[in-house]
Amino acid sequence: xxxxxxxxxxxxxxxxxxxxxxxxxxxxxxxxxxxxxxxxxxxxxxxxxxxxxxxxxxxxxxxxxxxxxxxxxxxxxxxxxxxxxxxxxxxxxxxxxxxxxxxxxxxxxxxxxxxxxxxxxxxxxxxxxxxxxxxxxxx
Length: 139
Prior knowledge:
This protein is of the alpha+beta class.
């Protein structure tokens, strides 16, 4: 039976220099296996820190009162340890979409798994759109 939830894969890297190279899409040989795998699945990495800063910029442009997570997001990325953490966290978008079918997530996770522990990816995390599995926004 096919799940009616959509999925998103995320991955963490442990090295700041690797994270920065991924953010900048540098064509370094050690990143080749990661980028080749992502491209073969029509996928791209999106740094969570960058996602947060884009959210803040949009909120500031259109009015922070319309963006309920503005205060929380701004506070979180101003904490040095959290900033460092989110600079090493990446969401995987497929066909420019944040979430995608379970079969897509399965295939992508299987393809990325060999990169875990070889000094490139520290871990892969799977999220889905089921509200019961996701934290609720802060008040």
